[in-house]
Amino acid sequence: MTLVQKHVSLRPYNTFGVEAFAERLAMLHTPDDARRALDQYGPPARILGGGSNVLITRPLEGFTWLNRIGGLQRLEADDASAVVGAGGGMVWHELVLWAVRHGLGGIENLALIPGTVGAAPIQNIGAYGVELKDVFERLEALHLPTGEVHVFEKRDCQFGYRDSIFKRQARGQYLILRVWLRLRKKGHQPDTSYRALADWLAQRGIGQPTIAQVAEAVIAIRSSKLPDPSVLGNAGSFFKNPILLEAQVHALQEQYPTLPSWPAGEGMRKVPAGWLIERCGWKGRREGVVGCHERQALVIVNHGGATGAQILAFAKKIQESVAERFGIALEPEVNVW
Ligand code: FAD
Ligand code: NAP
Q: Which CATH number fits domain 233-336: 3.90.550.10, 3.30.70.260, 3.40.50.12780, 3.90.78.10?
């Protein structure tokens, strides 16, 4: 049953913990709720999942849909894999824990990423060398202009680095209702290529980690390094890691020999935005109620009572510093509303 409320505080619904009001909020628990809301009120102005990748800077006019559509299905695809369908409003980390409990491999490196299943394809969530696209099978989405349900296969989603069609041509056009993932029942080789993960396992003498051990490691590393949004408001990495031409990275490395970089497709390399921000002196810096986290420079934090506009202004200063010093334009990963 769709619950519609007027003038609703979104503070509990965004992990930055900023205050902002939605003119109307519709809470969706089933795909039918979404269809009814669409028939009755027309397309929403915006969709909110867990609010862990948005920065709200102003009052939100019109309808905001809060997606809480649940449900979990498992299909035995073949001997080696199962295809699992999860409702778009399910909490992502709960899906990861469920998969780990059932010995299904593929998303253990994505443990503890906040937010919902339906938002995961939007930016092709990624961590510790794994991206959603690596296990993605298909999704079903409600096309808001027509009310039809469309199916997107992997190639249709145009997944890229923290990117998909839903951030480009299809932006604002769909409510993602259900996401299907192909997970491994047998023969799964966890990816432990990231140094922090490899070190954590090596320190405990774990040579051939199980799916559960990798999830445990990721949860432990993340908990020790990242601020818990329920304690200190944040939306994870504020900026994307820039992907630059190889020649540009080599020129920078002549000037800054310790600048790390990784291959990122033909002729391109990725450099860590956190490193650039730290070099500009922002790590741990605080200006009033907004700051740059002391352990992870990519994370901007709300020390209490910050507005979205204050956080955005702080982010712009970081962008200006990085542009001035390195000639690199940092692109926000967070969706600014
Ligand atoms: P929201 O913030 O609610 O929405 C994000 C965008 O998706 C908005 O544009 C919204 O309109 C749209 N959207 C949401 N749900 C739907 C839907 N069902 N249909 C259509 N559009 C929808 N991200 C990573 O990739 N890797 C990480 O390791 C990671 N770590 C994080 C750590 C912390 C502490 C935090 C706070 C964030 C982190 N993030 C990370 C960012 C964030 O958790 C993910 O991007 C997540 O997928 C956002 O989910 P959400 O439900 O909160 O989306
Ligand atoms: P980290 O391990 O300190 O590494 C810093 C950056 O270097 C990361 O952003 C990562 O890029 C890159 N990197 C490190 N090792 C790499 C390798 N072997 N190959 C390619 N790239 C490598 O990072 P961290 O901040 O603690 O985060 C750990 C993981 O969690 C990362 O994958 C990060 O993306 C993810 N995370 C994401 C968010 C978010 O909001 N998006 C927030 C927290 C953590 P990638 O980011 O491309 O992996």
A: 3.90.78.10
Tell me which residue of 60, 22, 24 sits closest to 42, measured CA to CA.
24
- CA 309 to ligand 1 centroid distance, Å: 20
Question: Is 193 annotated in the active site?
Answer: no
Rounded to the nearest whole angstrom, what is the distance from the C-alpha of residue 151 to the centroid of ligand 1? 21
- pTM, 2 dp: 0.96
Asked if residue 2 has pLDDT above 90, the reply is: no
The two structure tokens encoding residue 278: 């730290």
Task: Evaluate whether the domain defined by 5-67 bears CATH number 3.30.43.10.
Answer: yes
Q: Which is the catalytic residue, given 24, 138, 162, 184?
A: 162
Establish whether residue 236 lines the binding site of ligand 2, counting it when its CB lies within 6 angstroms of any ligand atom.
yes
Report whether pLDDT(23) > 70.
Answer: yes
CA atoms within 13 A on the CB side of 218: 28
**Which numbered atom of ligand 1 lies nearest the CA of 53?**
2
pLDDT, tens only, 296-334:
999 999 999 999 999 999 999 999 999 999 999 999 999
Of 108, 237, 261, 269, the active-site residue reads 237
Q: Is the CB of 144 under 6 A from ligand 1?
A: no
Q: How many residues are present in the chain?
A: 337
